[in-house]
Specification:
alpha/beta, 8-stranded mixed beta sheet, Immunoglobulin-like, single chain, 5-stranded parallel beta sheet
Amino acid sequence: MTGQIVFDPLLPWAVIWGLAALAVAGVLLALWRGLSGWALRLLAAIVLIAALAQPSYQIEDRAALADIMLILEDESASQRLADRAGVTASAAQELEARLTARPNTEIRRISVPDGSGNAGTELMTALSSVLAEEPRGRIAGIFILSDGRLHDLERAPDLPAPLHLLLTGRDTDWDRRLSVRNAPGFAILGEEVKLTLRIDDDGAAPNDAQTDILISVDGADPQRFSVPIGKDLEMPVTLPHGGMNVIQFTVPTAEGELTDRNNTALVQINGVRDRLRVLLVSGEPHAGGRTWRNLLKSDSSVDLVHFTILRPPEKQDGVPVNELSLIAFPTRELFLEKIDDFDLIIFDRYKRRGILPSIYLDNVRNYIEGGGAVLVAAGPDFASADSLYRSPLGDVLPAEPTARVIDLPFQPKVTELGLRHPVTAGLTGAEEWGRWMRQIEVEPNTGTTVMEGNDGKPLLVLDRVGEGRVALLASDQAWLWSRGFEGGGPQLDLLRRLSHWMMKEPELEEEALWAEPSGQTMRIIRRSLKADVGSVTITRPDGSQEKVQLSETSPGRFEALYDGPEIGLYRLAEGKLEAVIGLGPAAPKEFEKTIASGTPMAELIATRRGGVMPLQDGLPQIRSVRSGRPAAGRGWVGVTPREAFETLDVRQTPLLPAWLVLLLAAGMIVGAWLREGRN
């Protein structure tokens, strides 16, 4: 219970002070004129002015409120190194016991785990949340038990009390860490790219000048190199294949090192082709002659070399050769000397006319078997005696012409197997596709028929020959779709997918296994022409294995989601297919710096004059200090008692009741008048 005098003025204070000034002036005038009642007049003025201020005696019944102490325990990944977790737990228990022993004190213990994803340690976010829930006027002290490595300092709130960092870790701690300074997201196949790495020793590290580094690509056996410590390393890398390449860099664990979690870095680089070189050879001009040219020229990643046979050898019109503006077909240069420079060769309605001798076409066959790709877009010439099938190419073409040309309209359809093939899977609106007007009848020998035409006869047949690929499109009417005839069709998608499948783009493989990472979750994708696939065996970074069953999400595509329990390199296997994928960041934020330090929080702690105390020296003493005074010293930290209270009841008693004011003022005024009248 406390008592005090309070005022509730009837008039603004400025008016009251103005009246007081007038009263004092009147009393001074009376004194100057020698009036004997000036003292009584002064007392009467004081009583009246005091009455206007309405003084009261206020009595409050108060209940004291406990001071609140906040203890934040850092339970992030870096706090689980060495003995930090045990030191933190025991220190928090002892600190709570000491604070509880203080009178009128409440304790709030808050555990701060790892931030979501790769956010790191979010101590300030947790502190802001607690301060938003607790009355700031009761916070007397804030204690953080941590290694000081936080990652959200910019979210630090305005502190209502001293902040102290009780630092885990030891002076003898040291750590060797590998960091990736620069890594591109993609690279050109066959071209060298440079990654920038750095190996640093932190803390009380030994004076090693060099260390080994192991480099592994897609989980293959690693190569070992000796590299310097504390310098940027330029590592030249040439990607071995298209698609995702996973490169793992590992520094062997040194004796006495704090952790090896930051000794490994995963870099994932997508390998892309620089320029795809395509040779397009067109026979005699026809209505769809520019279809392939327009398609390939629209792709900025394609370098196209196009020749159209406008003047075959049998054409004799008497025009002198030196007067022709046509370019001679460089057959020897293209089909003998530089054939391996091309990724794809397209024969569009081409037939044998003596321009390409059999030895050249035989070299094209060798080109396919060695890894090249050839597409034949067949017209009536394919069914003739001069057909390409009657050349050495016939040994590798997937279908044989019957010499019949079907000049009847038909609607192209995707076969049941084609619904699962990446070239034709997902081509929508098949019921509304426009018709084609001609088809070459062929009998498939090998390969996969993905589209059919008139009476279910093969229209598009794909095959693999040796290391290469070959495709036969048994019609020269695809251009009708590009012209929008009867609504057109997916001509652009179909021909683009076809050409890229032939150039071995990884995402268009019929039998493929890969994974798409997102944080520590991967989406496993298996593409197959089979109706069912087996489970995928996942080998974790620690060597343990787990089987995951896939479910079919669309024809030929099977998927499953998998949450990786740890950051690192995962191996996937299903049958003969294998893939590797890296989960997690290249360098986890929690392990970028592991040596305990109070430097990151020093400026924030200084704003409330708190302190940084290493726990290896024992828990500091706790003292009470006044607000604004230094709150830390040698071996002690301070808290600021807030003396907060809750008001239960308030009673006010007027010091000058109205009757008393009237009696005193009237008495003194009359007394002054009588005294002056007597004189």
